[in-house]
Amino acid sequence: MTDITPFYQKKVVCLCCKNLFLSTKVRTRFIKLSHHETDFRPVYKDDEINPLLYNVNVCPECGFSFTDDFTKYFVPAVKQDIEERLTNQWIKQDFSGRRSITEAINTYKLAILSASLKREKSITTAGLYLRTAWLYRSTPDEQQENRFLALALNEYIKAYMNDDFKGTEMSETKILYLIAELQLRLRNLREAASYFSKVLAQQKNSIEPRIIEMARERWHEMRDDYHKAVHLT
Q1: DSSP 3-state assignment of 100?
Q2: Running DSSP on this structure, what letter comes out for residue 28?
Q3: What is Dmax (Cα atoms) for the chain?
Q4: Which of 15, 50, 82, 115 could bond 120 through an S-S bridge, CB–CB 3.0 to 4.6 Å?
Q5: Which 8-state DSSP code applies to residue 117?
Q6: Domain spans of the chain, in order of start
Q7: Cα distance between residue 179 and residue 134, in whole Å
Q8: Which residue from 172, 180, 167 is spatially nearest to 214, judged by alpha carbons?
């Protein structure tokens, strides 16, 4: 009897060139979540069995890379941009096996380029930037983590201002909290306070009390840190 491994090969059709290829995924039964960090980053009990590493599908033929959040529709003329700026530069690579942190980061960067060329919504691009920052958090490169947090923040603000998060799993309460949290992590304290206030203002009507509570906790932590800093100076 063959032992079932945590990983399996999923058949995927490229959204761009329609090539059929294999992409590694993690079986749900093997995923053991330890906790979530304050920006929703999932931390798993086993670093090796991390579905974040396998979120992006990379077409080995054309290089177009995408997640389940991408839409299937392509604006006319976009495929020509993809061919010129991605496929024509593409050196065929196969990401269908096990991925290291570095390899996974590279797949997200390919997906970010693909999303930009395809003109995906800001909410989709923001998620790619944020997950790239999460992966960098597992490395010593704090500068790159902060760089991608800042890129994610800009896209989440665009998504909020343009309402393009509507119809996705991202609620208004959640996106406001995430903007506040990323502002705080980047030490933009005034902006963080402003967005946490927007979250707390929704507490009467929100159906997400846990996020309201998280915002309150982070607000208090931020205020305490500020008072300590003032006292020390």
Answers
A1: coil
A2: G
A3: 67
A4: 115
A5: H
A6: 7-120, 171-233
A7: 15
A8: 180
Q: How much of the chain, in percent, has pLDDT values that exceed 90? A: 85
Helical H runs in the chain?
78-85, 101-118, 122-136, 142-162, 172-185, 189-200, 209-232
What is the per-residue pLDDT for 232?
A: 45
Q: Judge whether 194 and 164 are in contact, CB under 8 Å.
A: no
- Using H for helix, E for strand and C for coil, what is the string for 189-212? HHHHHHHHHHHHCCCCCCCCHHHH
What 39-48 contacts at long range (C-beta under 8 Å, 24+ apart), as own/partner pairs, is 39/130, 39/134, 39/149, 39/178, 39/181, 39/182, 39/185, 40/178, 41/134, 41/137, 47/138
Give yes or no for a contact between 222 and 192, defined as CB atoms under 8 angstroms apart. yes
Question: Which value, in Å, is the radius of gyration of the alpha carbons in the chain?
Answer: 19
- Token pair, residue 218, equals 């982070």
Q: Which tens digit of pLDDT belongs to each residue from 93-152?
A: 999 999 999 999 999 999 999 999 999 999 999 999 999 999 999 999 999 999 999 999
Q: Which residues pair with 20 in a beta bridge?
A: 13
Q: Rounded to an integer, what distance in angstroms lies between the CA atom of residue 53 and that of residue 135?
A: 8
Residue showing tokens 């060329």? 117
Tell me the CA distances in angstroms from 62 to 40, 65, 201, one per residue in order: 32, 9, 47
Q: Which amino acid is at 34?
A: S
pTM summary value: 0.94
Report the length, in residues, of the chain: 233
